[in-house]
Amino acid sequence: MPAAPRPFDDVSAVHPCGEGEYAATVDAQWGVSNKPNGGYLLAMLGRAAVAGAGHEHVVTASAHYLHSPDAGAVTIETTVLRKGRSADHVRATLRQDGQACVEAVFMIGHLDEATSPYWDAGAAGRPSGDRDAAVRVPSTSPTGMRVPLMDQIDLRLDPSCLGFAVGSPSGSGELRGWLELLDGAPFDTTALLFAVDALPPATMEVRPTGWVPTLEMTAYVRALPVPGPLTILHRAGLVEAERVDETTTVWDSAGRLVAQATQLAGIRLG
Amino acid sequence: MPAAPRPFDDVSAVHPCGEGEYAATVDAQWGVSNKPNGGYLLAMLGRAAVAGAGHEHVVTASAHYLHSPDAGAVTIETTVLRKGRSADHVRATLRQDGQACVEAVFMIGHLDEATSPYWDAGAAGRPSGDRDAAVRVPSTSPTGMRVPLMDQIDLRLDPSCLGFAVGSPSGSGELRGWLELLDGAPFDTTALLFAVDALPPATMEVRPTGWVPTLEMTAYVRALPVPGPLTILHRAGLVEAERVDETTTVWDSAGRLVAQATQLAGIRLG
């Protein structure tokens, strides 16, 4: 029986426990097998970074993943690298039992609701599919791996990129989906850090494999999303020497580009 | 009269001056106006990170730019975040007069010469233009800004993306070029960190502006380049709220994809 869903705000909460220090708990369900999702951990770090900053929105985040923590207690140490009028820069390090697990640097600034694109190359075209016709991702992957995260969120994929689920990946290396939190909570700029890493590896539509651990991930938040499901495009780039780069673009329910991310991950291919 | 070119190896050199500490000198010529190039600074940090690691190649680098240093003396403090069998993770912070200017985290590992792509989406198609027909970028920009860097390197742009130089940007937001170091030195993995930021802003082909300062830049080195000029594709994504994202792809002279980067920069548009 799947674990009862817990709100994202709860599982990513951080609690001050010293000067620039926060305590948090990695939830056992927010990941793949027993490995917590990288975007979930980055969101947790982002909440600690915002808590210690003089501004409110994550604008950039770049993270290196050093060691996958187990579910349970972690600490987050934050250091303000620079305080500015328009943005602060904050380093945050997540540790478990003294071991560094994730280190990220954030630019925390202010995003205005009233902005609009000046110019857009449109290189990552927003998927035009129909969310009502999309298929919710189950919590067991085609390779038999348990993905408890999928019982905690409402993630749906376009049927045209579900070849991997029936043993026939399209070869496109591209997944298109829609993401909602189960409690219907809107996505703030820290929840967007989870959203950019919520889809299965885009390489599922090249060749399904086991765990594809994120090594480095960088996200840019470009606008504040309106409430409603996010549309997400997740694309693999080059698979070589057991590494793959993936790019992710996120739009809000009004069609506005709100976040972009790139990651390098390990993979047992190439 | 332009300053005599200095080899990249010299201007990016770092000298041990304590436990995990390095001294370096920011060259006045390697930048735009009096601002040093962000990729040049990242390469300097990368050399310090490699010096303190048990492996030899930069695989990933993610940097936040906090404050632009002046030409002159800087120090680089490195901290090994994790030592591993296949890779080390190293944080490096560049300071001038005690002020933090750039902080970056690196994954330092080993890239094998014998690898080849397993799968490639080909999303960033390698420019097919002719380097012999390309135009060397001069050290004065169309907006009248001095770019002394261009006297220090051999950077040539495809004539089809030079509209900006004659007041008629194509609107593509894309630059395609070829880069060589003037002393003909091959690009190692740290020099590639400079290469990903060597081109003018891709927004020149949207609308020429003044300085476009890098806020965050992340680079992945995917393979070791063979000697010879690099081919570089530099594309703008979304310009909004005085920020722009740019993606850069670099191929070696044999046509192999060797590096990828993304950056968020400030711009006086939107």
UniProtKB/TrEMBL annotation, chains A, B:
Every Acyl-CoA thioesterase-like N-terminal HotDog domain range: 27-107
InterPro entries registered for this protein in UniProt: ACOT8-like_C, Acyl-CoA_hotdog, HotDog_dom_sf, Sec_Metab_Biosynth-Assoc, TesB_ACOT8-like_N
Highest taxon listed in the record's lineage: Bacteria
Domain named Acyl-CoA thioesterase-like C-terminal: residues: 141-265
Residues spanning the signal sequence: none
Protein name, as recorded: Thioesterase family protein
Source organism (scientific name): Mumia xiangluensis
